[in-house]
Amino acid sequence: MRTALALAVAALLGTLILPAAAPATAATDTGALPVAISLTTVDPVALTPQGQLTVTGTVRNTGRIPLSGLQVNLRLAWKRLADRRELMAWVALPARDASVGTIQATVPLPAPLLPEESLPFTVTMRGNSSQLAVTPGAFGPRGMTVEVQQRTAGIRRVGIVRTFTVWEPAGVPPSTQLALLVPITAGATPLDTSGTGQTSAGLWSPTGRLAQLLDAAADPAFTYAVDPSVPAAALAAESPLPPRVSGQTAQQEDNSPAPVTSPVPTGRAETAAGSPGPGSGSSPAGASASSSPTAPGFDPRVAAQAAAWLKDFVAAARGRQTISLPFGDPDVAALAAAGHGDLVDLAERVGAGASQQVLGAEPPRGLIWPLSGRADATTAALTAHAAGRVLLLPSSAVSPAGGVPVHGSITAPDGQAEVLLADDVLSSSAAAIGGSDAALAVQRLLAETAVLASSARTPGP
Question: 174 and 452 in contact (C-beta within 8 Å)?
Fold first, then answer.
């Protein structure tokens, strides 16, 4: 299933990255250790020789007996991780593995940790005590661990979490360019683009998903991949058409243009059975409609929220690069498999008209983004069928370790299909920011981009 964010990295060998189902932020193997560690903050995110690194979090006893004599260790590995496969290997190490780095700071926990009890901790180290090289070539990520040890009868590890810090020794650090693509789609929410005023309550709410999506992608560095049925539905909710008499078209009634309706179903599995899929619209013009003097389902409050969201969307879209998805964000792979590629052509044309109506201009179109993130030869052929189309796939479709070119082509039955690859690890880390493992996600994202930025440099110690 397509995730909420795609991240494209354009470096010397750019890698386009699509979020994975589970964020690649920390090792999942706990080795049955009884203490779970959650990081809250790593501040600052990069360590300098003159700086001070502070890590905060909580420890929780997941076992059945109290644990006393506990201390939290902050450890740092001296070796620069110069390859993305090394980053993957670091977080995948078993919980009891001896590769944990050198202790940089230790804080004792003030009391025994009872079963299911949690305690906060704060541990701090100075950059100039790390004994890392201070030459510019030493820039890059280092493996960092937060470890809980029990010092009663001997010393034993009872908890660990692996992450990273970026060592920034001197001068201006190298940089890389990130291209961030966020889909403005309705997800599993059925949309009404017909103008009857029927829409899901809360869809346009200031605290709803679509508003939060605009807030999260407020930076103009984000490129919008817009399903035109979303702003079309907002416009319809704001100004629903009056009801039509059975058998009468909108043009016959008031000479206004017919409402835009989706030409194809979305095919999303999460759409409730019996309900229209996102962008599927309502009954076509000419079907029976209510003779009520008001538009069915019209809610002035919803109309006001839709108008406010649409205003924010238009302002944001005009200040950034925007790409149009086919109208209704259909399941392009399913349509291709069923031999209905012509419906994708139609959805693109309908989307162009809807975008023109809302934005006053037609954004570039032709992005083929399978809902599942996967595509077969039939979907590739659909991409090759029309000029200007580009197939967006996760990097794992080519190489699980990344490091593949961002842009290329594959051979399809109808010719060459242009392909963009989205990097799974970067995208999953970016998508995890704001979640329960946000601190781990930030550090993983920085470590990955630091490797990309310094890939052309001579390796340092």
Answer: no
Rounded Cα distance between 380 and 382, Å, is 5
Kindly tell me if the per-residue pLDDT of 174 is higher than 90: no
Nearest CA to 161 among 400, 447, 429, 439?
439
Residue of 140 and 243 predicted with greater confidence: 140
Given this model, what pLDDT does residue 147 score? 97
3-state secondary structure 234-284: HHHHHCCCCCCCCCCCHHHHHCCCCCCCCCCCCCCCCCCCCCCCCCCCCCC
The model's pLDDT over 407-423, given as tens digits with 9 standing for 90+, comes to 777 787 778 888 888 88
Average pLDDT over residues 295-305: 76
- The model's confidence at residue 265, banded by pLDDT at 50, 70 and 90, is very low
Round to whole Å and give the CA distance between 175 and 215: 25
Question: For residues 248 and 102, which has the higher predicted lDDT (pLDDT)?
Answer: 102
Q: Which of 208, 163, 178 is nearest to 5 (CA)?
A: 178
- Confidence class of residue 311 from pLDDT cuts 50, 70 and 90? very high
How many C-beta neighbours within 10 Å does residue 257 have?
A: 12
Angle, helix 229-238 to helix 341-359, in steps of 10 degrees: 50
Instruction: Quote the pTM value.
Output: 0.74
Question: Which pLDDT does position 461 carry in this prediction?
Answer: 47
161 CB-contact burial (10 Å; exposed 0-12 / middle 13-18 / buried 19+): buried
Instruction: Find where tokens 């539905």 sit.
Output: 233
Residue 100 phi/psi, 5° resolution?
A: -130, -5
